[in-house]
Amino acid sequence: MSTQPQPGPGWLSRTGAKLTRMGELLNERRAAAEAESADSAPGGTSYGPGVEGEGVDHVPAPPAYAPAVPARPDPVAAVPWGMRVAAEAGWRLLVLAGTLWVLMKVISAVQLVVLAFVAALLVTAMLQPTVARLRRVGLPRGLATAVTAVLGFVVMGLVGWFVVWQVMENLDNLSDRLKDGIEELKRWLLNSPFHVTEDQINDVAKNLSDAVGTNTEEITSAGLQGVTVMVEFLTGMLLAMFSTLFLLYDGKRIWEWTLRLVPAQARPGVAGAGPRAWRTLTAYVRGTVIVALIDAIFIGLGIWFLDVPMAVPLAVFIFLFAFIPLVGAVMSGALAVVVALVTQGVFTALMVLVVVLAVQQIEGHVLQPFILGRAVRVHPLAVVLAVAAGGLVAGIGGAVVAVPLVAVTNTVVGYLRAYSMEAALHAAPVPQTAAAPADAGEKAAVPE
């Protein structure tokens, strides 16, 4: 009986190991295929058609046959460059206009204080050189300030008293001459080629009388307003006097305190512009006083030689009105011509007009360029617009301070523009040559 060998346990173990190895190889190949498909798709995940991609972060790209859709541009880039520049400048101008409007409202609310302080600045600019001379002589600051202020206020008070005294002294004579002048003017109109009748003149006189009678309440209220204006004028004068005293005595320390309010980056430019603005204001005030004095003397002498009444008060009015550029000269000259017309007749009025025009021509073409010079050179158009704007905003006071304000602003803006250009040149990097060392270039850039 033959016997066959039976398979042992080693055979079964070898077969199981082979199957396990084949499964591992299949798993490795499957993982490699999945990794390759994931790398080929953008976003790292791919799925076939018909599969819901819930929870997947990637949206597949459109197929190649889909039409190209252009992307929308940035809204800022879609606005034209010119419109963007206009918009940027527009909102800045609106902010600036709003700031100026608020500033003007504040100034209008405290107009009396502002005008008093500006008047004090003008008087200080006129008197400060005298204080400086007295201090150079050896007087202490307080005594020099007191002497200058007292003398200045006394002189201005005497001028005002003299004008009032002359007007009151000549008022009766002027009234009589005014009546004679009106009668002479009436006779001239009757004999003139204008064919004016006496009935027409009487009707005009009657209408004027009726207008005065019916507007009595308005005239009374105007008188009450005149009392209010007088009280405000006295208050402003006292404020201006006290401000002048403190500016003469402590002007330097007031300026140093004002500089502390300026931001640190802008402080050097403002510190340099301040003294130049003060020199411009001083030159304007002193030059205007000299020119006004010359006008008053020569026009007053001409009126006096022509035997026009109140020649001295008219000369003082010409001096005071000279501080209002352009407009003041016209008003004072017209006043002198009217007084000459109603008191001395047409020929004398024409002669006064010739004298006024001659002196004003000499003033405009010789005195102002020679005395004021280049320190306060302002274009005539700027002068006219400044006087008109100042008169609309603050009346006569605004017209007086408008031109010195424009002159000072012109000086400050010119200096700040030059200062900013110089600062930009100093801040620019200095080019260095290849042969020169770095420290040599730095030494050459800084002047000793």
Explain this structure:
With 448 residues, the protein is mostly helical. It has 14 helices and no strands. Helix 5 (141-169) packs antiparallel against helix 8 (216-260), helix 10 runs antiparallel to helix 11 (327-344) and helix 11 runs antiparallel to helix 12. It is elongated and about 160 Å long. The termini are far apart.
Annotation keywords:
448 residues; mainly alpha; 14 helices; disordered C terminus
Q: What would the average pLDDT be, to the nearest integer? A: 75
Order of helices and strands: HHHHHHHHHHHHHH
Q: pLDDT below 50 for ≥5 consecutive residues: which ranges?
A: 42-56, 434-448
Helicity range:
over 70%
CA gyration radius, whole angstroms: 45 Å
Q: What class do helices, strands and sheet pairing give? A: mainly alpha
Largest sheet: number of strands, sense, barrel closure: none
As an assembly, this protein is single chain
**Ends apart, CA distance between termini:** 130 Å
Taken as a percent bin, the fraction of beta residues is under 5%
Please state the overall shape, judged from the principal axes of the Cα atoms: elongated
Number of strands: 0
Number of separate helices? 14
